[in-house]
Amino acid sequence: MKKFNEYKSLFFIGVAGSGMSALAQYTAASGIATSGSDRFFKEGEHHEMREKLEAAGVHCFPQDGSGLSENTDAVIVSTAIEETVFEVTLARKYHIPVIKRSVLLALVAESKKTIAIAGTSGKSTTTGMLFHILSQAGYEPGIISGAGLIDLIEKGKIGNAFLGKGEWLVIEADESDGSITQYAPHTGVLLNIEKDHQEIDQLLELFSVFKKNTKAIFIVNRSHPLAKKFSQDAAHDFGLDKSCGAGFIASDFSQDEFISNFNINNVPFSLHQPGVHNMENALAAACVAAQMGIPLKAVSAALKNYKGIYRRHQVIGEKNGILLMDDYAHNPVKCAAAIRACHALGKKVIAWFQPHGYGPTRFLKNEFVQEIGGALRANDEIWMSEIFYAGGSAEKNISSNDLINDLKAIHKNAYFVENRNDFLNAARPHFEARTVLLLMGARDPSLQEFAKSVFDAL
Predict the structure, then answer these.
(1) Is residue 261 situated within a structural domain?
(2) pLDDT in tens, 220-233
(3) What is the DSSP string of 236-301?
(4) DSSP calls for 152-198
(5) Percentage of the chain surpassing pLDDT 70?
(6) Is the pLDDT confidence value at 196 over 70?
(7) Are 390 and 80 in contact (CB under 8 A)?
(8) How many CA atoms, within 13 angstroms, populate the side-chain half-sphere of residue 179?
């Protein structure tokens, strides 16, 4: 296997995906000839992601093999790309190496002093916060993440990758496909462990390897009982309760609409991100930064102007007394946290959720019912449309309506509307003064446009 800086030409299949687009931008910025294809790219059709990738130096093609050449060093695929995809078959025919995205990201991580953020919830936000703190402190870091930072998006970029001139790189380390075991970072951070994609015992095994591979310092959330088991040194860790023994403690949380106020080791913080979960993400980022020598007061000052990341409690707008929020929440814990963070924003929350993938929905069915049901107040509502199908050989033997029926069985205000385009008109009679309309879902690239269409029709 080559080292990262030995590659001259790379081709990404499915380059419009969040993880793939981030790595493609990073390789292009590193001086590697980078190209890619996506099934959403059609000749003669406008595609915003394609335009931004091209602007970042990534040459884009339809998914028809036209972008592959004898000069291609390797074809990069994600776990979502099956062997039967035409371009994979073509690469095999041309004897071009086909490697997983995670393998390439591991090679990138080896080329820098890398901080890898892991856990089943909060990775993208914590990665973005830490990148922002290090940038404000003059470290000139790089980032490879699964979500775009608003700061970078406002500069016309996709926002989920930045090369950086410094020696530090912050990455989001994904456990969903087991790829986390391939990273050997300088610093490893474990936020939490919840059932998501895999069973708990499998996750514990993956995170055990992740800890073993970490070269210098391993930091965990001691408030989370499963994560606490991986503690290397309590003084390096963080938590929400003094009794947990962590060196960095967040306390005194309060929320004033969108502003979260709290203290970390008696230093006051004010964050323009709602919810206790965002305090916890900020605590993790502050803990790492402090151990790199950045004073907590400087961390607080940096986070005060942190703008957030794309589709994480993103305010679409307010119209006719309805506040519309869009969020990437897609697993049970994230959905529950997103709903709870809206409680301080309105008297009633109407949450809409589009599950992604028949396998994940079936696997987490009971957890979705338990977590979402527990987050709903007496007058709050949950609506779901049918499961998003991204292609492949999925067994379609579950429906969102199965979750809705289980939520009804525990006396929650739950409604099924098969076609999401019918959701707004169906829910409109349920609107009250100071209602928060929360849209949740992931993987479906049209969700951003859906949120805009809902707002236009409010």
Answers:
(1) yes
(2) 999 999 999 999 99
(3) G-EESSGGG--SEEEEEEEEETTEEEEEETTEEEEESS-SHHHHHHHHHHHHHHHHTT--HHHHHH
(4) HHTTTS-SSEE--SSSEEEEE---TTSGGGG---SEEEE-----BSB
(5) 98
(6) no
(7) yes
(8) 21
Is 368 domain-assigned?
yes
> Does the pLDDT at position 17 exceed 90?
no
d(CA 57, CA 220): 37
Work out the burial of residue 225: count CB atoms within 10 Å of its CB; fewer than 13 is exposed, 13-18 middle, 19 or more buried.
exposed
Instruction: Please indicate, yes or no, if residue 125 is contained in any of the structural domains.
Output: yes
Residue 392: how many CB atoms within 10 A of its CB? 12
Residues 222 and 319 in one domain: no
- Asked if the model's pLDDT at residue 285 lies above 90, the reply is yes
Burial class (CB in 10 A: 0-12, 13-18, 19+), 279: buried
In sequence order, the 6+-apart residues with CB closer than 8 A to the CB of 37 are: 11, 12, 13, 14, 15, 60, 61, 62, 63, 64, 66, 67, 87
Which domain range does residue 117 map to?
112-304
* Nearest-angstrom CA–CA distance, 255 and 235: 28
As a whole number, the mean pLDDT across the chain is 93
> Does any domain span residue 25?
yes
Query: Where does a domain end: 304, 332, 365?
Result: 304
In which order are the strands placed within the sheet that holds 74-77?
A: 58-62, 33-38, 9-13, 74-77, 98-100
Which residue is it, tokens 């964050």? 271
User: What does pTM read for this prediction?
Assistant: 0.88
How would DSSP label each residue in 386-405?
A: PPB--SSS------HHHHHH
pLDDT reported for residue 443: 83
At residue 149, φ and ψ (nearest 5 deg) are -80, 135
Beta bridge partners of 169: 114, 142
State pLDDT tens for residues 249-270: 999 999 998 899 999 999 999 9
Domain count for the chain: 3
Q: Does 77 have pLDDT greater than 90?
A: yes
Please report, for residues 2, 37, 121, 261, 411, the alpha-carbon distance to residue 349 in angstroms, rounded to integers and kept in the order given. Answer: 51, 40, 22, 22, 16
Lowest mean pLDDT among 218-227, 402-411, 437-446: 437-446
Lowest mean pLDDT among 17-26, 42-51, 285-294, 314-323: 42-51
Whether 268 and 387 share a structural domain: no
